[in-house]
Amino acid sequence: MPAVSRGDAMRGLAVFISDIRNCKSKEAESKRINKELANIRSKFKGDKTLDGYSKKKYVCKLLFIFLLGHDIDFGHMEAVNLLSSNKYTEKQIGYLFISVLVSSNSDLMKLIIQNIKNDISSPKPVHVNLALHCIANIGSVEMAEAFGSEVPKLLVSAQANESVKQSAALCLLRLFRTMPDSMTYAEWASRVIHLLNDQHMGVVTAAVSLIHSLSQHSPNDYKGCVSLAVSRLSRIVTSTYTDLLDYTYYFVPAPWLSVKLLRLLQCYPVPDEPAIRGRLVECLETILNKCQEPPKSKKVQHSNAKNAVLFEAINLIIHIDSEPNLLVRACNQLGQFLQHRETNLRYLALESMCLLAGSEFSADAVKKHRETVINALKTERDVSVRQRAVDLLYAMCDKTNSEEIVAEMLDYLKIADYAIREEMVLKVAILSEKYASDYTWYVDTILQLIRVAGDYVSEEVWHRVIQIVINRDDAQGYAAKTVFENLQAPACHENMVKVGGYILGEFGNLIAGDSRSSPLVQFNLLHSKFHLCSPATRALLLSTYIKFINLFPEIKPTIQNVLRNNNQLRNADVELQQRALEYSQLSSITSQDVLATVLEEMPPFPERESSILAKLKKKKPASAQALEKDEEKHKKSPASVENHVETKETPPPITNSNSVDLLGLGTPAAAPETNNTNALWDVFGGSPAPEEQVIDVNMSKTEENPGVPAAGSEPPTTAANETQYLTNIESLLPGFDIPNQLSSEQPPAVELLNIGSNTFDEGTLVTQPAPELISGIGDIDFAQTSQVGSDVCADVSDSDWFEKFLFKNSGVLFENDLLQIGVKCEFKDQYGRVGLFFGNKTPTQLNHFSASVTLTDDQQGKLVVATQKEAPSQIDGGAQVQHFLNMECVSLFSDAPVLRIRYNHQGAPHSVSLKLPVLINKFFEGTDMDATNFFGRWKQLGQPAQECQKIFQAKFPIDASSTKLKLTGFGIACLSGIDPNPENMVGAGIVKTKDLQVGCLLRLEPNQAARMYRLTIRASNGVLSQTLCDLLEDQF
């Protein structure tokens, strides 16, 4: 920045500021400001033209008045005029005024943008910097649209100096945050990434901030930054570093740049290259080693910088989660901070250890600090640190220490801050449910929770304990006894009354044999709480009373007197009045048998995700995710209460596995039989429907698409028929621009399959010389269209690339040292179009090249394949040629066609045989339907011949989002809200062929604990069910 000369000092501004400071009252200040505003207004409106110095001085006064809180409605044009000045100080004040006072909707914005454009192209770096600062300060959509393409040029320009590049990077970051979807700068990615090697501290720091935001939005475009970031970090932190020697902050080399680089690396997975990975691990080990060294300075700045790098390195270690040594060392380092005198360090250590507790490599190391964390929970003065201690106890809890941790949390709840009590209640409820060694402990824990923090026990908590007690025969008697004892306390929380009323109403008969808990004693105990409760609890107790009439007929008169009391029948609360009246009538006019039927025990609840866990997810998503990760970590030894408690003769239908998932995260239970035809359990588990009720989903294609060849018609053989055949495909596949062979003019070359855009998932050919290896598709010669032969090819070698095409339609199908084969397909109804791309990876020519497709016995007459464009017989070195096929699915088939390639290279013959990725699922079209239609069709497709079911071990981590993506790519429409277990996948679709359409329904049930799946497919054609099941069996 240029130095300000003595002549630029504004004495009038200094005097004005001094006058304002000397004002004794608000009125005096307003009077002085109004006087100055009048003076400035007269100067601006006067006949005398003001020089640049005067404009600058008055604009500065206006800016100062605005900052004092007064509105300014003039002077904007004078500020804009200052932008045209060649004097730095005048231009600077003009930009400052515009950045602070001018709205992005101002009428002057176009004029301002024009001045900014002039300054951006200025040869003076200080003027360019002022313009970039103004763009970033305003940061409007209009600024982004005007300069979004100009600023990147300054960033990568070889002529721009370091200060301009730094400002350009930060300005670009501001514009990107304004319009992230339209400003990805993919074309500049490689040049922006290489700014990480810049030697200027300001440039590389600004560049890292920019790349971090861009990589979060477009990770694939900027994945090349990983190796450069690791290299730059290594040069900074290693003991032999030679980078940025001129910037050491209190004996810590470039700490803030190191922090930004470590944060950038967390946007990507751990590098696959051993050299880069080893270098990164070395950097992290060096950072951990330096933390063990004695401090080089006692000043707080040194420790702050050192710890900033350390904590970001630990976050990266947690993100990598594959280096056990680093994870344990990080945990030990954090353990030293747990007793540090600095509160902030203790807070950060607890927060980081919460993340480490979720790793299988460091979980045991975290548990060693349990006593320290419990002590922090009891002794910390800062409530935020105590809250982090609660989070860490929750994260480190497992089956081995659950009882101790829950007991400590219950003990602390008595004195806990009100701000964290509700969250602690949820966590105690979840942990006691998940890691229950037996149901007596769980019931005791929840009831103690209600006693200690009843005001903070939400409905989800006491609802959940009732659900579990109802579902477990072996817990019902103990629960009834325990709640009865708790209700006898002089001070009893209302939530305890709710739980006690519900459980005694259902299972009070289990303890009625004891004279101390006889029916009348139970009733009197509950009724003694009645008048102290809210209307909602009273309503629940009235339901308990009518249940007592069914359980204990001997106290029926006593209860009827209560129900018929005027206080109930004439209650101001409509709900209480209606219940009292209806229950009174029900007990009077119905027989004992009818009453017993109406008031029978509640049936077991279907297991689903715990509502407590769902509430914690909303309140604190990180804690709930930690528990779900822990579920995966302990999947081989789940918290099973059935390992400790023997069930009665008829256990409730919770799961089919040997373990009980109290949180409902496992497989769904089989519900009791019901006559409700809309119940999902009945639909999925019911008996097959009678044969006459099976729905016929076979439809004529001619009725649905009149332009499509009718069922049973022969494949095209003549030129005219071929044209009609291809026209039908063109009408159904608008993405394929198929020219008409009968026209007199041939259309220009087109990118039929967009292969020229380098969109292959596996990348394009990389051999040299081949700068245009992936080229556009030329004109298609329909005169070469011919029918493919049907000789069966023997000894077909399955390609390792084949299976991935079950879920996508483009990519590399095969590759060796000589040849790369790419494929891109599109399908619509029964028609398909396949583009094959053959790339010569050698510098020499491939001769006698031929490609043919042969059909297996299974496909004869079921799949029609016609060659639209043949590949040439010679492929030059580094060149690529195309081969196009049209297909029609006539009927159901199960095998893939075989692609055979023959060619000569340097006189030696070569051949490749592989499966073409065209399977029956490619003609699958997803179908959306509501629950009613789905249930009906599922039952109608219930015959054994129509269903295929397989149970198999999971090959990959069970993840709902990736499973849904696979099913969608397979062609199934995933239906939400159908299955009561949200982890199950339900889908529907129709396979469309020329002869018929076949409806298909799918259900995929994961079992996290056993790491297994159960796949069920029902279709009106049993062969299709079996085929689809076989295809999907090994894909999850």
TrEMBL record:
<feature type="binding site">
    <location>
        <position position="53"/>
    </location>
    <ligand>
        <name>a 1,2-diacyl-sn-glycero-3-phospho-(1D-myo-inositol-3,4,5-trisphosphate)</name>
    </ligand>
</feature>
<dbReference type="GO" id="GO:0072583">
    <property type="term" value="P:clathrin-dependent endocytosis"/>
</dbReference>
<feature type="compositionally biased region" description="Low complexity">
    <location>
        <begin position="667"/>
        <end position="679"/>
    </location>
</feature>
<dbReference type="InterPro" id="IPR017104">
    <property type="entry name" value="AP2_complex_asu"/>
</dbReference>
<dbReference type="InterPro" id="IPR009028">
    <property type="entry name" value="Coatomer/calthrin_app_sub_C"/>
</dbReference>
<comment type="function">
    <text>Adaptins are components of the adaptor complexes which link clathrin to receptors in coated vesicles. Clathrin-associated protein complexes are believed to interact with the cytoplasmic tails of membrane proteins, leading to their selection and concentration.</text>
</comment>
<keyword id="KW-0813">Transport</keyword>
<dbReference type="InterPro" id="IPR003164">
    <property type="entry name" value="Clathrin_a-adaptin_app_sub_C"/>
</dbReference>
<dbReference type="InterPro" id="IPR008152">
    <property type="entry name" value="Clathrin_a/b/g-adaptin_app_Ig"/>
</dbReference>
<keyword id="KW-0254">Endocytosis</keyword>
<dbReference type="InterPro" id="IPR050840">
    <property type="entry name" value="Adaptor_Complx_Large_Subunit"/>
</dbReference>
<dbReference type="InterPro" id="IPR016024">
    <property type="entry name" value="ARM-type_fold"/>
</dbReference>
<dbReference type="GO" id="GO:0030122">
    <property type="term" value="C:AP-2 adaptor complex"/>
</dbReference>
<dbReference type="Pfam" id="PF01602">
    <property type="entry name" value="Adaptin_N"/>
</dbReference>
<dbReference type="GO" id="GO:0035615">
    <property type="term" value="F:clathrin adaptor activity"/>
</dbReference>
<dbReference type="InterPro" id="IPR013041">
    <property type="entry name" value="Clathrin_app_Ig-like_sf"/>
</dbReference>
<keyword id="KW-1003">Cell membrane</keyword>
<dbReference type="Pfam" id="PF02296">
    <property type="entry name" value="Alpha_adaptin_C"/>
</dbReference>
<feature type="region of interest" description="Disordered">
    <location>
        <begin position="615"/>
        <end position="679"/>
    </location>
</feature>
<comment type="similarity">
    <text>Belongs to the adaptor complexes large subunit family.</text>
</comment>
<dbReference type="InterPro" id="IPR012295">
    <property type="entry name" value="TBP_dom_sf"/>
</dbReference>
<dbReference type="InterPro" id="IPR011989">
    <property type="entry name" value="ARM-like"/>
</dbReference>
<protein>
    <recommendedName>
        <fullName>AP-2 complex subunit alpha</fullName>
    </recommendedName>
</protein>
<keyword id="KW-0472">Membrane</keyword>
<feature type="binding site">
    <location>
        <position position="43"/>
    </location>
    <ligand>
        <name>a 1,2-diacyl-sn-glycero-3-phospho-(1D-myo-inositol-3,4,5-trisphosphate)</name>
    </ligand>
</feature>
<dbReference type="InterPro" id="IPR002553">
    <property type="entry name" value="Clathrin/coatomer_adapt-like_N"/>
</dbReference>
<dbReference type="Pfam" id="PF02883">
    <property type="entry name" value="Alpha_adaptinC2"/>
</dbReference>
<feature type="domain" description="Clathrin adaptor alpha/beta/gamma-adaptin appendage Ig-like subdomain">
    <location>
        <begin position="803"/>
        <end position="917"/>
    </location>
</feature>
<feature type="binding site">
    <location>
        <begin position="11"/>
        <end position="12"/>
    </location>
    <ligand>
        <name>a 1,2-diacyl-sn-glycero-3-phospho-(1D-myo-inositol-3,4,5-trisphosphate)</name>
    </ligand>
</feature>
<feature type="binding site">
    <location>
        <begin position="57"/>
        <end position="61"/>
    </location>
    <ligand>
        <name>a 1,2-diacyl-sn-glycero-3-phospho-(1D-myo-inositol-3,4,5-trisphosphate)</name>
    </ligand>
</feature>
<keyword id="KW-0653">Protein transport</keyword>
<dbReference type="GO" id="GO:0006886">
    <property type="term" value="P:intracellular protein transport"/>
</dbReference>
<keyword id="KW-0168">Coated pit</keyword>
